[in-house]
């Protein structure tokens, strides 16, 4: 078989596709493989369709990643490193190379991400109420759809890519025992309980969708669509959330670097505040490691301690202690 980087990349992507990864995940893998392969081609003067994977040494890979990292964030470089590490692991299993050179290719050190939920105790509720009342003004208002999208994000904690990958059949179960079946990162599936209030919001949205487009809704149809009845895309979702936050007057309560993900963080933070343990949070959010889930608990504990320290009675006690 052709032993080039291009050929083995195609085989690896077929392998990933067979694992039923989400379409967005496959695109990210392909983008990472092609981007670094482009750097390798420039370094070696050989196109990826002619560059043998067996000739990719740790030295040339270090140089390629150094070039790749030049204008990219640490998280992007880390993701690409993970892609190529998995790629070489696959090549070793397939016998295409003898070892994995990525083990000596440095990657950025990443500190645990700090949760960035919506700020303000009443912010999620205000957002939902305002959107339900039609506060988001558009040429073709669809408050039922907007409310269903925001409520699903806030009440299930799904990632934006997971939400866009949902189909009508992702909602399953009898009334009172409804669940949302989610295909998550790395092909890991999970099932999230759906409370009756969220189920009603989604059913109202689907009823409004049938009224708008006069169509049946087979199970394989995308769950969320845009105003033309086309599958909702990433850009459309971001715009919907941004405009809804602005219409509700809470856009200033979104922390820097967060937007759609702030709704997921809000879901997880409230789980921690209500006493959920790391294992429960990890299961609901689809974390591969409980370390990420523990982060929400640790942050919540710090916030609670800061709130206690702000108690004016404690401040008086401190003054009395100082006087003694």
TrEMBL record:
Residues 3-92 form the Core-binding (CB) domain. Residues 113-309 form the Tyr recombinase domain. Keywords: DNA integration, DNA recombination, DNA-binding. The keyword DNA-binding applies. It comes from the Bacteria. Transmembrane segments: none annotated. InterPro entries: CB, DNA_brk_join_enz, Integrase-like_cat_sf, Integrase_catalytic, Integrase_recombinase_N, Integrase_SAM-like_N, Tyrosine_recombinase_XerCD. PANTHER family: PHAGE INTEGRASE-RELATED (PTHR30349), TYROSINE RECOMBINASE XERD (PTHR30349:SF90). This is Tyrosine-type recombinase/integrase. It comes from Saccharopolyspora rosea.
């Amino acid at each position: 078989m052709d032993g080039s980087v291009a050929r083995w990349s195609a085989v690896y992507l077929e392998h990933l596709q067979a694992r039923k990864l989400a379409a967005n995940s496959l695109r990210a893998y392909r983008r990472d493989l092609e981007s670094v392969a482009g750097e390798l081609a420039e370094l070696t003067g050989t196109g990826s369709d002619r560059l043998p994977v067996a000739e990719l040494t740790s030295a040339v890979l270090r140089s390629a990643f150094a070039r790749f990292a030049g204008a990219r964030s640490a998280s992007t470089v880390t993701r690409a490193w993970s892609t190529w590490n998995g790629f070489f692991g696959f090549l070793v299993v397939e016998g295409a190379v003898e070892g994995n050179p990525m083990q000596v290719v440095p990657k950025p050190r990443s500190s645990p991400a700090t949760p960035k939920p919506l700020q303000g105790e009443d912010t999620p509720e205000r957002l939902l109420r305002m959107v339900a009342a039609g506060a988001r003004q558009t040429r073709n208002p669809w408050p039922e759809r907007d409310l269903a999208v925001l409520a699903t994000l806030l009440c299930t904690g799904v990632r934006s890519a997971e939400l866009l990958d949902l189909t009508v059949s992702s909602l399953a179960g009898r009334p009172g025992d409804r669940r949302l079946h989610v295909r998550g990162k790395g092909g890991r599936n999970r099932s999230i309980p759906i409370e009756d209030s969220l189920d009603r919001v989604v059913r109202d949205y689907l009823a409004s969708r049938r009224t708008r487009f006069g169509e049946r809704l087979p199970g394989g149809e995308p769950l969320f669509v845009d105003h033309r009845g086309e599958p909702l895309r990433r850009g459309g979702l971001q715009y919907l959330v941004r405009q809804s936050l602005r219409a509700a007057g809470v856009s200033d309560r979104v922390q820097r670097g967060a937007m759609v993900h702030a709704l997921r963080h809000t879901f997880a933070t409230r789980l921690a505040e209500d006493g959920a343990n790391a294992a429960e949070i990890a299961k609901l959010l689809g974390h591969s490691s409980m370390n990420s889930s523990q982060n929400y608990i640790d942050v919540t504990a710090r916030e609670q301690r800061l709130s206690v320290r702000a108690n004016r009675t404690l401040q008086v006690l401190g003054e009395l202690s100082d006087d003694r």
